[in-house]
Structures are given as structure tokens and as C-alpha cells.
Amino acid sequence: MVKKIKVKNSGIIKLQFYNDFPDGNLVIGESNKSVPFKIKRFYFINNLFSPKAIRGKHAHKKLEQIIFCINGQFTLNLDDGESKQGILMNDPYYGVRLGPKLWHTMTKFSSDCVILVLADDYFEEDDYIRGYKQFLEYVR
User: Fold this and answer.
1) Percent of the chain at pLDDT exceeding 70
2) Is the alpha carbon torsion for 83, 89, 91, 94 positive or negative?
3) Distance (Å, whole) CA 80 – CA 9
4) Does 3 fall in a domain?
5) What residues act catalytically?
6) Is 103 among the domain residues?
7) Is the torsion defined by CA of 121, 68, 75, 50 positive or negative?
8) Burial bucket for residue 19 (CB in 10 Å: 0-12, 13-18, 19+)
9) Whole-model pTM?
10) Tell me, what CATH number does 114's domain have?
11) DSSP assignment, residue 134?
12) Strand ranges (DSSP E) for the chain?
């Protein structure tokens, strides 16, 4: 996991981790503590068997999210309209904040990849910017 994010509207989130050997690991995230907002929605993505799969391909006007790879790995590509950064997501104890006005795509999924996303608001289609050209116009 990258230790520094260079794009705007992003950052690293570290969850509490307890090794309870031999009974597994316990990972804890709490609203308004390790997660810097009240969680109103969560979703997960799995069964990413196609090596050509691309997820995301959008930005948000207001929504804030945190993305975790809780199993396997994938590449998270971030773009704030000025800087771009690719991040290998392969550590379940670290997430990346996806703030507003941040174009993101996810690629190069391992077949066992499971992605968990926490969001600070409910789904609202009007909050999405689905075209890259529209995104660049919005952030400039």
C-alpha cells in the first residue's frame, strides 16, 4: 500500500487491526473515528473474473467514500484533473479516501479480489460525473 497520496481530495485511512492467532484477525472501523464520516451506505464488489474488467470510471460532485481491498488485489487509478496516481490495493487494513471531484477507475483485479466501499451518503444519480471530459470541465 502506498504511504502517500499525491492527488487532491484523497488520503489514507488505517483501520484498527487485532491479530487473534490462531483464531484469525479482527479489523475494526468506526464512524467519525477511523472512518472520518457517518456511514450511510456500503457496498462490496466481488466475482471479478475478467482480466479486462474496469470498474468506477466516474467522479462525484459531493459524495465521499473510502475504498478497501479486503481480499486479493487491484489497481486504483486516481485523477484530480491535474495529477494522476495509480495505487496497488492489497492490504485490507488500509483504505483510500475517494473525496469529491476525484475521477477513479479500478483495474487489474485478482480473481479472489473483494472490494468494500463505505459512503457518507445514499445513492443519488445527480451526484455522479460519468464522462471524463465533463469531469475535467467540472474541476477546472
Assistant:
1) 99
2) positive
3) 8
4) no
5) 58
6) yes
7) negative
8) exposed
9) 0.93
10) 2.60.120.10
11) H
12) 10-14, 16-19, 25-28, 41-45, 55-60, 65-71, 74-79, 84-89, 94-98, 103-107, 114-119, 128-129
Average of per-residue pLDDT values in the chain: 95
Give the residue from 50, 49, 69, 57 showing the smallest Cα distance to 2.
69
Q: How far apart (Å, rounded) are the C-alpha atoms in residues 117 and 97?
A: 10
pLDDT over threshold 70, residue 42: yes
R_g (Cα) of the chain, nearest Å: 15
Q: pLDDT category, 2, cuts 50, 70, 90?
A: low
Phi, psi at 85, each rounded to 5°? -150, 135
In a domain, 16, yes or no: yes
Domain presence at residue 2 = no
User: Torsions phi, psi of 88, nearest 5?
Assistant: -80, 115
